[in-house]
Design brief:
The complex is a heterodimer of chains A (about 190) and B (about 525). Chain A is mainly alpha-helical. Chain A contains nine helices and one strand; from the N terminus they run E-H-H-H-H-H-H-H-H-H. Chain B has about 525 residues and is mostly beta strands. Chain B is built from eight helices and 35 strands. Chain B has a five-stranded mixed sheet. The radius of gyration of chain B is 33 Å and the shape is elongated. Classes of the chains: A mainly alpha (about 190), B mainly beta (about 525).
Chain lengths: ~190, ~525
């Protein structure tokens, strides 16, 4: 096997999707399969499930584009994978298998929610998403990165520390303070 | 609210937010249009070179993209006691504990089948051969080279069998090395390029510094400087702890293109760094910026500047947005509390930021009774968009019968309004089957809607878990084409989502599918 490297950019991949050329899926897989697999693995902790999740992501992207026109293809795909993996996790009761970051993440996020919160309350998810987006804008960028890597990408504390070059204590401290700030923010937005 | 709601909501944040905060910079995941790399067969370029030193790691990574092999820092996990193995003679014992901090050793990430081996020629032509120590996904202790950068073209073979990491069994002295891949029988293989790489003296002169957590800033500075490093105090963190205590330490990044990659390594307790590296200490601010902060007049400030100003004084920021014809988009319109108010650290300051001029609005005319052609010209003149929905009627063909926005209502330019138009007594119809996958137990209604939101037709469905299809019948346009989306509306669950989009044309007896998510859309249905 001899190799020469060639380049494919996001615009090329998107053009292939628009043309309904299945080569687009192969190129997207080559470019981002590893990233998506990693995201799914953090949630599912099962290589085969993660692989299926990446395949589902590609199928979903194939069905969505067009008409969808992702502005940032890797982020678009990452969102699909992350949400598919979470759905799968919930459906499979994956907590029984252990190892997933999801139970810990849920446990930590419960700090943002006072016990008297009405769990029956039907929330407008869009309002909550908008509130989270505006919240991320109001905290230091490093803190937002830590928060999103933990609760979007489901990375372990140690992984975040390595990736952002912080100590684990610092990551824990940032998460603790950010959750406290999030609680205040959601209260101000009258979402709690 | 449940914790799941926050996780779910985070899954809906914008692509920009995901890209900015959740994706690693070192993965090749830049904004759309940036290039990433895949591999294809071609027999050229037999020999490439890679220079390995801490500063040149970016080059190594770049070459990992350009070659089928790259040399990167490998790092060993810290151990509780010195037990030999891969321990470096340069291992040091920190002052706080007996942890041995092993110096990073060299690893090579290469694309080759598991089971093949490597021969290394050093400058004195002494040859060292060894089998790869493990075949891995690139692990969390290593420079996060994206696996795709070394992916081989076939997706049928599991990636792991091609991505192999080589842990060199000892610290390599400075010099130039050539790595030769051997096949599974130990013979020199033509299948791979040779890789030349260089270990610099600098690489072997790294020093270890603990992260200084909890020390006084004076103690930390003294220790950092005693190692030949530079200490720098950053802005104070929140005033939540003992003033002057180190909250955390980071390593200053290079301003060069290479700053994406590590010129140091963190092992859980501290960092291996090059001599002369700047260590940034974040020190607790104590009561700095505390009770007597006078809020400046921020009107007209750039939001980011205002935010940084407030954060640096220990305030929280609550951002709101509003249209303004007077204040440029992105600038501060007002603050609450107002300027010159004295506030304490930890206070929330609400900042209202301009979205720029509000979009122009126009009054909606009364289209009913107009001919379609006239209605279209009128809408164009007012910068409104109209969609034609044709239904059978005794009225003359083309006459507007209904509009879905009341006349006189002020709406933003370019808003889509649906106009229901007479198609005469017997317009043609087209039937479209919409697939429903197995496993949907709840009743729902399929509704076909063009972009203005008017319901073209609907079909109640009660699949009771069985796979099947529902047929929607819509009137064909008498001219041109019409696109519409089919939504599944689960009224009892309070959710509705698009499942497919179609186009029908006046000159065709069939329909075009723009997208069809029926196979996957129903799987997201909440319990």
């Amino acid at each position: 096997m001899k190799g020469r490297w060639r380049t494919v950019n996001d615009n090329t991949i998107l053009a292939l999707f628009q043309e309904r050329n299945e080569q687009g899926i192969a190129e997207a897989n080559r470019a981002y399969g590893g990233l998506l697999h990693r995201i799914a693995m953090h949630i599912l902790h099962d290589s085969r499930d993660a692989e299926e999740c990446v395949n589902d992501t590609m199928l979903k992207a194939w069905n969505a584009i067009p008409p969808a026109k992702p502005k940032i293809l890797p982020a678009f795909l990452a969102k699909l994978t992350r949400n598919l993996a979470l759905n799968r996790y919930t459906a499979d009761h994956a907590a029984k298998r252990g190892g997933s970051s999801v139970p810990a993440a849920l446990d930590e996020l419960s700090e943002c929610i006072p016990s008297q919160a009405d769990t029956e309350q039907v929330l407008d998810r869009m309002a909550l998403t908008a509130a989270l987006e505006s919240f991320l804008e109001t905290i230091p960028e490093q803190h937002a990165k830590v928060f999103m890597r933990r609760y979007f990408s489901m990375l372990e504390i140690g992984e975040i520390a390595v990736e952002l070059r912080l100590s684990e204590n610092t990551v824990k401290s940032i998460l603790h303070r950010t959750r406290a700030k999030l609680q205040i923010h959601l209260e101000k937005e009258e979402l709690l | 609210m449940k914790e799941h709601d926050i996780l779910d909501a985070l899954g809906q944040v914008s692509e920009e937010t995901v890209s900015k905060y959740a994706l690693s910079k070192s993965e090749p995941l830049k904004a759309a249009g940036k290039e990433h790399i895949t591999m294809s067969k071609s027999p050229d370029n037999k020999k490439k070179s890679v220079r390995v030193n801490p500063i040149g790691i970016a080059a190594a990574v770049a070459l990992c993209i350009g070659l089928n092999a790259a040399v990167i820092y490998g790092v060993s996990r810290m151990k509780q006691d010195a037990d030999g193995g891969l321990s470096s003679p340069a291992a040091q014992i920190s002052e706080e504990d007996s942890t041995v901090h092993e110096k990073p050793y060299v690893q090579i990430v290469d694309a080759m089948p598991t089971g093949a081996s490597v021969r290394l020629r050093n400058p004195t032509e002494e040859t060292v051969s060894f089998n790869p120590s493990f075949a891995v996904l690139v692990g969390d202790e290593m420079l996060p080279v994206n696996i795709n950068d070394v992916q081989i073209e076939t997706s049928l073979v599991p990636l792991q069998s091609y991505v192999t990491c080589f842990n060199f069994p000892k610290q390599l002295p400075a010099g130039t090395y050539t790595m030769v891949n051997l096949d599974t029988e130990g013979k020199t293989s033509d299948d791979f390029e040779e890789t030349v790489f260089e270990i610099s003296e600098e690489f072997n002169n790294m020093v270890y510094i603990t992260e200084q957590y909890g020390k006084s800033s004076d103690e930390a500075i003294a220790e950092i400087e005693s190692k030949g490093l530079i200490a720098k105090i950053s802005d104070a963190e929140d005033n939540t702890s003992v003033k002057g205590r180190v909250v955390y330490m980071t390593i200053e990044e290079s301003d060069s293109e290479e700053s994406d990659v590590r010129s140091y390594h963190y092992d859980g307790y501290g960092y291996w760094v090059l001599p002369g590296t700047t260590c940034i200490l974040t020190v607790d601010g104590g009561d700095v910026g505390g009770a007597n902060y006078r809020l400046p007049d921020m009107v007209g400030w750039d939001f980011e500047v205002a935010k940084e100003e407030l954060l640096s004084h220990g305030m929280y920021v609550d951002k709101r947005s509003s249209y303004s014809s007077e204040v440029e988009a992105g600038k501060v319109i007002s603050t609450d509390p107002e300027a010159d108010t004295w506030i304490v650290a930890g206070s929330y300051v609400q900042i209202t930021v301009s979205l720029g001029n509000s979009p122009e609005t126009v009054p909606v005319p009364n289209f009913v009774g107009m001919d379609w052609a006239k209605a279209k010209i009128t809408a164009d003149a007012l910068k409104l968009s109209v969609t034609k929905i044709e239904i059978p009627s005794d009225e003359p063909v083309g006459r507007v019968l209904e509009q879905n926005v009341e006349p006189g209502e002020e709406i933003a330019e370019n808003t889509v309004i649906d106009l229901t138009v007479s198609a005469g007594k017997n317009p043609e119809q087209i039937s479209i089957p919409v697939g429903i996958p197995a496993g949907v137990n709840d009743k729902f209604t399929l509704r076909a809607k063009p972009d203005g939101g008017t319901v073209l037709c609907e079909q109640a469905c009660d699949p009771q878990g069985a796979a099947g299809s529902a047929v929607l019948t819509v009137y064909k346009p008498s001219e041109g084409s019409m696109e519409f989306t089919v939504y599944a509306d689960f009224t009892e669950k309070g959710v509705a989502f698009p499942v497919a989009r179609y186009e029908i044309r006046s000159d065709s007896d069939t329909y075009e599918t723009i997208f069809d998510n029926t196979a996957t859309a129903f799987t997201e249905l909440p319990e």
